[in-house]
Amino acid sequence: MRLTVGHLKGGTGKTTTAVHLALGLARSGRTLLVDADPDQDGALAWSQLAKDWPADRCIVIEAADRHLARQLRPMLDDYAHVILDAGPKNPNLLRQALTLSEHLIVPVRPTGADLAAIERVFELAAEADALSPLTASLLLVDVDSRWKSGSEARTWAEGEDIPTMTAQVRHLVEFAVARGTAPEVLGDYELVLDELIKETL
């Protein structure tokens, strides 16, 4: 599987999502996790902090410059799975990541600010899909069951014809404190992974 986790807005749960999905996919084959966020400590720093990181199965590299696609393309066939964690505010970097991917996951918290910023992301996905098949889906993260914001965000996305994953990630402490760990139990991300795998069958 070749997957980009991306959004043009920061703070939407991209790295948390990319790390959890990469660890899950590494169970079934050698996985490359690409930290493509030049402006903050992302997936690479996360893996370096985790004492139990499965470095033999989930290799993490940093590649976040304008030559991203050229750097990575020769490496793709060496891995069963490739996950790109694309940083925000960089349409060119996201565009390059999408040229290497079969799927795009756009994590968003169910807030107006996160949702308002996704139109351009799906435009870039449509451009990439015109060149090579690419599926793109919204993933609701940090969903608090005490509030209606999750269901309202899902209804809004459906009204805008934005594909949205059935699986969602709840607002739980385990995800907030996961940075610097390599969890074997992925919680709600197990459902996200199952849905992704079913889409590829």
Major sheet:
6 strands, parallel
Q: Give the overall shape.
A: globular
The largest beta-sheet arranges its strands as: 3-2-4-1-5-6
| Uncertain spans | none
- Total count of strands: 6
Average predicted confidence as pLDDT: 94
Q: What is the H/E order?
A: EHEHEHEHEHHEHHH
Number of helices: 9
* Radius of gyration (Å): 16 Å
End-to-end Cα distance, whole Å, is 11 Å
Give descriptors for this structure.
single chain, 201 residues, alpha/beta, 6-stranded parallel sheet, 9 helices
Describe this structure in words.
This protein is an alpha/beta fold. A 6-stranded parallel beta sheet has the order 3-2-4-1-5-6, with helices on both faces. Helix 2 links the parallel strand 2 and strand 3. Helix 1 packs across helix 9 and helix 4 packs parallel to helix 6. The chain starts with a strand and ends with a helix.
Offer a concise description of the structure.
The protein is α/β, with parallel strands linked by helices. 39% of the residues lie in helices and 16% in strands.
Break the fold down into its secondary structure elements and pairings:
Layout: E1 2-5, H1 14-25, E2 31-36, H2 43-49, E3 58-62, H3 68-72, E4 81-86, H4 91-99, E5 103-108, H5 112-116, H6 119-131, E6 135-140, H7 149-159, H8 173-176, H9 188-200
Parallel strand pairs: 1-4, 1-5, 2-3, 2-4, 5-6
Helix pairs in contact: 1-9, 4-6
